[in-house]
Amino acid sequence: MSLVKLNVKKGDTVVVLSGKDKGKQGKVLQALPKKNKVVVEGVNKVKRHTKPSQKAPQGGILTKEAPMHASKVMLVCPACKKATRVGHKEVNGNNVRVCKKCGEVIDQTK
Question: Fewest CB within 10 A of the end CB: N or C in the chain?
Fold first, then answer.
């Protein structure tokens, strides 16, 4: 299995392009580059039946976010607030992500 470079990172705001949650926006909670998937806050909710345990003494049905394919989401530019493709550019010796619509740098400098 080849490792695919994801255009989104943990903490990015994304919009869902297809599926039952089409058009919803959310924050990326987890990026899984080995599986080419992302977990988005409030999107792709599934119900999980759990037995009682030390952690959850009640057990029952829990609702949580499931991973979805990374190609189904698109990054929302923090500057222009539009869904955009991602470009890459070298600034001060560092490779950074750039918004294709407005040209603003997406990554925060440290």
Answer: C
